[in-house]
């Protein structure tokens, strides 16, 4: 099985590099603006480093939104606080630049209304100028994405769309054909959130996707919270996506009165990075 290099884009090439090391890629998510903009930028950079310089292969930067219907409790709490503290769409570009400066691909995960309000072409222009790799758009389906597909082609940006266990083969086929970079496979139904056990649906969904089209990397998200789970998911998927567990370390640090303390965040990143490296790849 070989990825189609013409469809990998910037973030997909990070997946290919991880595969060359016989492991899954680690993808980490944090929202911009929590606990404040400056600390959130330090935090997304810390995702690339862990404790010992080994961290995430790809970073997802979240744009807080006032109606985060697909987000779990931890991400909603952090996003709501960020909005109350004055975060703006433009702040994402500073976070993107900081991650891109480390050599790690920087993606933005966003509800589509934020991009549409900013202006699709203007957002793509400013995002590309900041060094961004592409967008993950959980509430935008390919059949409603003509403008984004055209503009992302113009600016050379990755397009990561989502599939779920409930997706039909026809939906998976159309989604894969629209993606550039990789495809985001949600391993459980419902909102995001760390879980004590990863979904048993993940290997089945990954297998279905590969039977339809094995030319793109597959990232699996929703539920991973530690290195053992990362190893389990990384045995089947090309990428392991972690969000809520990372956000929870920032929430705990603020609750403890030390909002700028990123030591727990770095520790978890190192645990996750070790997990994807010890996974027994199928």
Structure in a nutshell:
The protein has 282 residues and is of the alpha/beta class. 46% of the residues lie in helices and 13% in strands.
Describe it for me?
The chain has 282 residues and is an alpha/beta fold. It has one domain: TIM Barrel. 46% of the residues lie in helices and 13% in strands. It has 12 helices and 9 strands. The protein has helices at 9-20, 37-47, 73-84, 91-100, 112-118, 120-129, 146-155, 169-178, 201-212, 227-234, 244-255, 263-278; strands at 25-31, 58-62, 106-109, 134-136, 158-160, 162-163, 183-186, 218-221, 239-242. Strands 5-4-3-2-1-9-8-7-6 form a 9-stranded parallel beta sheet. Helix 8 (169-178) links the parallel strand 6 (162-163) and strand 7 (183-186). The protein is globular. The termini are close together. 52% of the residues are buried.
CATH topology: the name is: TIM Barrel
SSE sequence, one letter per element: HEHEHHEHHEHEEHEHEHEHH
Oligomer: single chain
Q: What is the name of the CATH class?
A: Alpha Beta
Termini separation (Å)?
Answer: 12 Å
Helix content: 40-55%
Taken together, the total number of domains comes to: 1
User: Can you give the mean pLDDT?
Assistant: 93
Strand order of the largest sheet: 5-4-3-2-1-9-8-7-6
What's the topology here?
Blueprint: H1 9-20, E1 25-31, H2 37-47, E2 58-62, H3 73-84, H4 91-100, E3 106-109, H5 112-118, H6 120-129, E4 134-136, H7 146-155, E5 158-160, E6 162-163, H8 169-178, E7 183-186, H9 201-212, E8 218-221, H10 227-234, E9 239-242, H11 244-255, H12 263-278
Parallel strand pairs: 1-2, 1-9, 2-3, 3-4, 4-5, 6-7, 7-8, 8-9
